[in-house]
Amino acid sequence: MSFRTSLDSALNIADLRVLAKRRMPKVIFDYLERGSEDEHTFHRNRAAFERYALVPKIVSGHKKRDLSVTLFGDKLASPWIVGPTGLNGIFWRGADIALARATARAGGVFTLGTAASTSIEDLAAASDGVKWFQLYPWADRKVWGRLMQRAQDAGYRAMIVTVDTVVPGNREQDRRNHFAHNVSYTPKVILDGLLHPRWLAGVWLNGPRPRTENVVEFVGPEATATELADFSRRARNPDLSWDDLEWMRAQWDGPFLIKGVLHPDDAIRAANMGFDGVVVSNHGGRQLDQAISTLEALPPILDAVGKRMTVIVDGGFRRGTDAVKALALGAKAVLLGRAPLYGVSAAGEAGADRALTILNEETERVLALLGCGSVRALTRDFVREVPPIP
Ligand SMILES: Cc1cc2nc3c(=O)[nH]c(=O)nc-3n(C[C@H](O)[C@H](O)[C@H](O)COP(=O)(O)O)c2cc1C
Q1: Given phi > 0 = left and psi -120 to 50 = alpha, else beta, which region is 348?
Q2: Max alpha carbon distance in the chain (Å)?
Q3: Is ligand 1 within 6 A of the CB of residue 32?
Q4: Active-site residue among 178, 196, 263, 283?
Q5: Helix 338-370 and helix 320-329: axis angle, to 10°?
Q6: Of 305, 313, 329, 373, which residue is the least packed, with the fewest Cβ within 10 Å?
Q7: pLDDT tens string for the chain (390 positions)?
Q8: Neighbour-count burial of 61, counting CB atoms closer than 10 A to its CB (0-12 exposed, 13-18 middle, 19+ buried)
Q9: CB of 162 sitting under 6 A from ligand 1
């Protein structure tokens, strides 16, 4: 089967996941996919969608369905925020740019992370879509301030600080694979690389080894991928405080969100401090295992701050139905982690396009079948909490 045919035959995100898994060595796919410890939270994120059933109102008389949302003054054609994911360059060379361009075409927002494989400036030059920047509070205020300044200068519209990674999550599969934000060349890894020649030729042998470009300036221009990975581990801040967050808020002239909020009290505190939004997130089940699923965490947070700030949610979104449930509960937009990564890992920019097209088409179809004319018209009565079916 040709490359194009297999991509076109991917009908859903799960099909793209299979293609991605086939193309990449196990150590790389495991980094993309796996959660921390027993992966309870990783699975709980998906399982929580079963708690809600969609309740259509038939025959709505809408000829077209409108997926658009407005976030901080930007009118977007679709409700997707492609979330920050570090080290995308090890999935596909140039993955950040491929994702940013595909996201712009699909009508969403692209978020570049501190741990990205592409620099703030290079990404901004390569894509003119709406871009946000995700700040990891690594090292000290000098580093945070510098990253925010660069993002401001390059025209990023909003800032997100991620607060659920003050220490690295216990990702046991990565530890088994000797993957520590960086590939170690064990005999098993080398053999696996050789057994995935398309990945090997396209990513590993096709130029310099992908590295976390945004932190190069803090380590040195010649820094290797390994040295940069060491920096990101050493630079964690377990003592990150609300004072630090207040300091950051004051540095950024524009919308500012906190990512990794699960408790309504934290959302209230963020709102009181002048933050503009929260991303209800457990880092895709990659940090605190046994944490509450995001769909379970969402309604109390919406009740607490939904009228005061923008509430966005992520975690396990793989279908249009998933997104419609969260939007009907009251989320303003949905942030995606793995779903577009499966696409870009399977086939670069064409794969990223495919992932986002699938999600747009699914969401539009779901709205039609629900009898709802637009994402903005979704209300809580389109979903009902239902007991599990044994
Ligand atoms: C491979 C990978 C790398 C990630 N890197 C980051 C990161 O650098 N910064 C961050 O805030 N979140 C990061 N995340 C978390 C995502 O932004 C998002 O919260 C999570 O993936 C959502 O769950 P989902 O993958 O089930 O959609 C990463 C997730 C994955 C899968």
Answers
A1: left
A2: 62
A3: yes
A4: 283
A5: 70
A6: 373
A7: 455 668 989 999 999 999 999 999 999 999 999 999 999 999 999 999 999 999 999 888 888 899 999 999 999 999 999 999 999 999 999 999 999 999 999 999 999 999 999 999 999 999 999 999 999 999 999 999 999 999 999 999 999 999 999 999 999 999 999 998 778 888 888 999 999 999 999 998 989 999 999 999 999 999 999 999 999 989 999 999 999 999 999 999 999 999 999 999 999 999 999 999 999 999 999 999 999 999 999 999 999 999 999 999 999 999 999 999 999 999 999 999 999 999 999 999 999 999 999 999 999 999 999 999 999 999 999 999 999 888
A8: exposed
A9: yes
Residue ID of nearest Cα to ligand 1 atom 29: 85
φ, ψ of residue 132 in degrees (nearest 5): -115, 160
Question: Which domains are seen in the chain, by residue range?
Answer: 3-253+266-385 (3.20.20.70)
Atom 5 of ligand 1: nearest residue by CA position: 85
- Report whether residue 35 contacts ligand 1, using a CB cutoff of 6 Å: no
Whether 181 sits among the annotated catalytic residues: the reply is no
The tokens 């002239």 sit on which residue? Answer: 253
Torsion over CA: 44, 47, 51, 54 (sign):
positive
DSSP 17-50: HHHHHHHS-HHHHHHHH--STT-HHHHHHHHGGG
* Placement of tokens 């969100």 in the chain: 257
Residue ID of nearest Cα to ligand 1 atom 27: 337
Task: List the helix and strand counts (H, then E) for the chain.
Answer: 17, 12
Alpha helices in the chain (DSSP H): 3-8, 13-23, 26-33, 40-47, 95-106, 120-126, 141-153, 172-176, 187-194, 197-199, 216-219, 225-234, 242-251, 264-272, 294-305, 320-329, 338-370
Q: Which residue has the tokens 């946000």?
A: 132
**DSSP β-ladder status, 74-76 and 69-71:** antiparallel
